[in-house]
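Sequence of Phosphatidylinositol 3,5-bisphosphate-binding protein (Coemansia thaxteri).
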Amino acid sequence: MNVGRPMLRAGSGAQESYAPELLYATFNQDYGCFAIGTQTGFRIFNSDPYKEKMRREFKDGGIGIVAMLYRSNYLAFAGGGRNPRFPPNKVMLWDDASSKIIAELEFRSDVLNVQLQRDRIVVVLRNKCIICSLEAKPRHLHAFETADNDRGAMAISGGSDSGILVFPGRQKGHIQIVDLHSCINLSTLQDSVSPASAHAQAVPPQPGVGVQRTRSGSKGSFSVEPNGAPTSPQLAAAVHPTNINIIAAHATSLSALAVSPDGAMVASASEKGTLIRIFDSMSGRLLHELRRGVDRADIYSIAFSPDSTRLCVSSDKGTVHIFNLEAKQAAAQQSAAVAAGNRQSNLKFMKDLLPKYFSSEWSFAHFRVANEVRCICGFGSERNSVIVLCADGTAQKYSFDSYRGSCVREWYRKFI
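Predicted 3D structure, token representation.
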């Protein structure tokens, strides 16, 4: 998420504290590591315990987007900052073992978000979400039209056995849900083109690796036409539409999305920033309506815990809210020793007569980060802990009490 660039509201007063050299910050799929893009390169850190793992400095520009593939040596970049290292309309696949760019993908507009899976690259443009194969010579597999998506909202389930992708729908406030496992198989795609074309276009990925190095340091690339179609006629004929679930989640544009590790739940927030809604990814049924607050806010991140029983949400107000998603199930089981449930209004018994404000669930724990800056959050290695990455260049760890809801800051580190 782009936390490094100050974004002030109209009529706002003094500019908030931020690190000028910080362009981007993101966690990997299990929140065990995080990466930052800077005006001169990128850095990788272990989240908890906090430790810088590596850094790369470039003489000729900055990294505006970084995407990690778990803890592997493969990363994806897009240029950014005062002097971008790479064009902002290109995604560069980096192999840190050889310190080389091994593949590149070029688009007709600026890249707003990138996520990696073991066999796919997902790229977000302003009005498109594009799925490509993750290999030495990436190939275009699918392109989906979206509503205006300036924030680059998109999420993929982090579990190794799941592949649920979510991104904005064509209509404002709608969510599109795609099961990546239902997308066309790479071997099927290769069989559908001529042998000569298949040999020239791709090298099949090894199981569990997903990326093949090119010989002699060569790079694979392709371009995407304005209508989102692949440039190869054979490839265009081979790619078939996949089934999509669409959920009408909010009345205004989406600002943040998240998927549970097992892909069973999807969480969303709109640009209004007061409600977070959680849906069943298969049926589209509303499971929870969580209230962050009553005043407008920019939601910067939503994250599920590894066991999908909790959710944390961060905003531009420097606050992090933690919700309990197992409270309803625990109440139904009438367990005497369960974690604290989310707060609700005392007038919830009149929810059918009163506005939705009175029936929403409120966080059972929340805290405000130091300096009250914009931040993104993820759950730490300990069950009752949250790691926060802030726009002022700091990483912070907070622990929370499951029963009382109290929060304590465990440590505070400056990473830039």
